[in-house]
Amino acid sequence: MDAILSIKYIIGALSYTLYAFIIGGLLLGFHRKIVARVQSRPGPPIIQYLIHTFKFYIKEITFPITAGNPLYLFVALMDIMVWMSALFVGVVFESSLLILIGLYVLQKIVEHGCGLSSGSPYGKLGGVRSVFSAAAEVPLFAVVGIIYVITHSLMIGDIINYQAINGPILFKLPFAAFAFFILLVSKAPKSPFGIVKDKCIVSGYLTEHFGTLESIVLISEAVAWFVLLWLFIALFIGPVLISSPILTLIGMVVLTFIISMICAITPLLTPNHSVMLQILIASLTVIDLLYRVIH
Amino acid sequence: MFIDPITGNFYGYIPFGDIVFYLTDFSVIAFLVALFFTLVVYLTKPEKQLEAQINDFDKFNIVSLKELKIRRLMAIICGISTAFAMLTGDLFDYALFLAVIGISNIGIVSAVKKEWVLNAAYQYGIIAMISSLPLFGAAGLILAKTGTLSILELSKTAHDIFYQKIIYAVGMVGETGIAPFYAAKAEMFKAPGAPYILMIHLSSLLIIIRTAEILLSIH
User: Fold this and answer.
1) Is the Cβ pair B47, A95 closer than 8 Å?
2) Using CB atoms and an 8 Å cut-off, which of residues 151-170 of chain B contact chain A?
3) How far is B68 from chain A (nearest CA, A)?
């Protein structure tokens, strides 16, 4: 009986991951379409992201002679492990936000590891830029602190319950919501903060990860997009949207649309400007946190 | 328990001399991640970084066996210290683990025979040494004010240690070399030897989150 139940749980978990991947992939395709339309191009179909992922998945795996194995292989697998864990810890179990942040920062390790382990100069530059852009994560810690000061809990379930009683946190903590939103923007493709995948360094940290490994990274990026959008809605808008899957989906589409518009009309910042702007936002968020702690 | 709403379920503690480890959802996951990475670092051979040359063929930057051995040892020490820093329930022991991580981070890069890498390691070393004063000083101030260094005890009742917590955080920021001390550490990340360099990055990130957990738990 237990074995049957376990199999049921495993099938359920895999189905939910597939759902998150398909929704995340479609949203990223939608993002690409919006950016293209704003730039007066027809753009690829919305399912292009999923088609790409499938195409790369059936390609053969080869390893560059410069690569340091098994790290080269492991970081790609780790990427999907990180975001599947984030999906279950955050979205399914509504557990601690701190664990989710921990998993999010492991994404930095993936970016850095992908770039360095390949031995490619482009990958290395992408990886090193990823380390610099860690400044984008500082607001995340401050946001966590600010939410804790207000709700006295970091359990996502508790934060959603708090909003069910007191209304969305978005209106109480607009600056924290803004800082988190900037994090979403920096994770989006073609983002003004996207220095790690700048075209002048080919594909940045992903340059030497191709074929099946690239497909695995694409799958995890789609799941990551789903998780991050869900998290923003859960933390700042709460049960108004999160209680219904349809409303959550509508919220994700609206957020993706806004982010796409920002990405379409803003140029890519230089690494220096990107980091400076992120540090500025980080500093303001930390000041906001200290102000709320003292008062 | 005040720790539950921050780190997830509390499973209990392991009395190990004066080093009391405690197990929560967060600490167990972080501990396993750090140990798993240490294993990967042990198994991985360093990459051969490709370097473009003017008027010549591109050349490989190869990590020699002698260099590899010392750097791998330092990376493993760093990984083990990080793993146990995730579990410890004592502020002083946590500061000690942090200091070991700082020293091993310098060790990881100091074996690289390149001037710019050594300069970066030197600058980072100075910041790490300076930062040990606020780090251990804050632990001492907390002990003087509350009579305990146990995170579990400090999380039970309010002690008004806001400024001591800020000093502790400043110590952590310097010891791990995060923003605004990137300038010292950034050049270290360009050195060849991906698995070892990655361990420096991983330890910093896990330590930041663990410090956030500690600072939110004690009050």
Assistant:
1) no
2) 162
3) 13
Query: Taking the model in full, what pTM does it have?
Result: 0.87
**Structural domains counted in chain B:** 1
Domain that holds residue A162: 2-294
Number of domains in chain A: 1
Supply A60's token pair: 């053969």
Look at residue A212 and tell me whether its pLDDT is greater than 80.
yes
Question: What are the DSSP calls for B6-62, one per residue?
Answer: HHS-EEEEEEETTEEEEEEHHHHHHHHHHHHHHHHHHHPPPP-EEE--TTS--EEE-
Distance of residue B147 Cα from the nearest chain A Cα, in angstroms: 24
CA dihedral sign of residues A12, A220, A98, A237: negative
Each residue of B4-28: pLDDT tens digit? Answer: 667 777 787 887 766 678 888 888 8
b/e A203-230 (16+ beta carbons within 10 angstroms → b): bbbbbbbbebbbbbbbbbbbbbbbbbbb
Domain that holds residue B162: 4-217
Cβ neighbours of B49 in A, within 8 Å: 66, 119, 121, 124
Count of A–B CB contacts within 8 Å?
A: 137
3-state secondary structure of A38: helix
Tens-digit pLDDT profile for residues B107-162: 888 888 778 888 888 888 888 888 889 999 998 998 898 888 888 888 888 778 88
Average model confidence (pLDDT) for chain A?
85
Distant-in-sequence, close-in-space partners of B167: CB < 8 Å, separation ≥ 6: B134, B137, B138, B141
Q: Do B202 and A282 touch (CB under 8 A)?
A: no
d(CA B157, CA B87): 21
